[in-house]
Amino acid sequence: MWLADRLANLVSGLGGPRDKSTGNLHVHVPRARAELDAAYRDNWLARKVVDIVPFDMLREWRAWQAPPEVAAALAASEARLALRERLLQALRLARLHGGAALLIGDGAPDPARALDPETIGQGGLRYLHVLPRTAIQPGPVERDPLSAWFGEPRGYTVAGGQAVHPSRVVRFLGAALPDDAVGDGWGDSVLQALLEAIDQATAAAAHIAAMLPEAKQDVISVPGLSQALATEDGTRLVTERFAYAARMKGLFGMLLLEGDGRSPEGERYQQKQLDFSGLPEVARLFLQVAAGAADIPVTRLLGQSPAGLNATGESDTRNYHDHVAARQTVELTPAIARLDRLLIRDALGRDEPALRYAWRPLAQASEREKAEVGRLKAETAAMLAREGVVPTDVLARGVEGWLSAADLFPGIAAAYGRPAG
Using CA of residue 318, residue 321, residue 326, residue 327, what is the dihedral sign? Predict the structure, then answer.
């Protein structure tokens, strides 16, 4: 006998055989790619759920913590390889289909061999190609914990049967699976768990829109209507009569009827209207559920101002920005770590293990906030100069770098003779 330790109420039936949720059972039903593609192409909410997070992760891009000339060389390599655009496309495909990959091209004759970073000189990277999940097939996952490729496929196969070494592939996963042994080496589409909430939100709006033509209806009670409609001539006469009445109402704003409109012998006119007072809240509730399921605040998902007294949405926006920053650090940075090493060699022709970068914050400061931060930094620099804590030439170079990178004085970077970083 199986015993379950749970809350039960004999009066309400909670937890007993009368509980309506007793038979609930979660069954995984994979969404076909055709359905996912159709939802992305035809459902505005599904498209935004897929696109918003990758766009925000890359919107402000990153800043290399390096001297201006080094940062400029790295930015030139990123632009030549269209790295930002390729990453955006790959992340979108990964969220939509559960996986995507970047193929690193260095001109090697045999892509099945490992890509040695030492062989990449300045300008050595030829291309970065985005491959959807269906265009690159992962091999068996490496299970040897002593292998450098543990947890990743041992190899890939691209169109035409060409084998590709995993060192030449940057893979991106969609929604994580409970066990990497499940599936074919990729993840789930983010729409797999969200599509029901998305469908409910869009269906609620569609049902309300379908009610709009029924918002006001004219109802006319006609004595003996059934007998009149029993013959073709009677049906024609009734139809012509009320078609003429509708034209009179439309042209002159009056409706001519027989009788006083109250007695059983005469025709009676009524106008019925639907009550829409609670429907906006219902539609908004479904949208909030979809936004919560997607981990995107309503203010970002719908582009609307928050409702309610003293509501600013600042806390929601701040939490969302923190969420995106965490995904940049925890997911995106490790995924492109090997590519970044190759990018550094492509830009500089050598390894620079000490090079680091920081993702630029999503929140954009106002002009007043920029000026306030600038004032505080200027006061700090002046204090350091007075105290002599930092050598003058070092402090001057630091202030020069800050003023060149900060958006405070347009043209100051060119005046210093250095590219803005």
Answer: positive
Does 169 reside within a domain? yes
Q: Which of 255, 254, 275, 95 is nearest to 188 (CA)?
A: 95
End position of a domain, from candidates 333, 361, 389: 361
> What predicted TM-score, i.e. pTM, was given to this entire model?
0.76
Q: Which residue has the tokens 């969404």?
A: 31
Residue 345 buriedness (CB in 10 A; 0-12 / 13-18 / 19+): buried
Bridge partners, residue 64, by sequence: 357
Residue 231 shares a structural domain with residue 262: yes
Q: Please state, in angstroms and rounded to a whole number, the distance separating the CA atoms of residues 262 and 81.
A: 80
Q: CA 374 to CA 77: how far, in whole Å? A: 31
Does residue 57 lie in a domain region?
Answer: yes
173 strand-pairing partners: 99
Q: Give CB contacts under 8 A, 24+ apart, made by 331-336.
A: 332/57, 332/87, 332/91, 335/170, 335/171, 335/172, 336/87, 336/170
pLDDT of 311 over the 60 cut? no
- 288 assigned to some structural domain: no
| Domain interval for residue 393 | 365-421
Q: Compute the distance between CA of residue 68 and CA of residue 291 in angstroms, rounded to an integer.
A: 41
Lowest mean pLDDT among 37-51, 339-353, 368-382: 368-382
312 & 221 share domain: no
Count of domains for the chain: 3
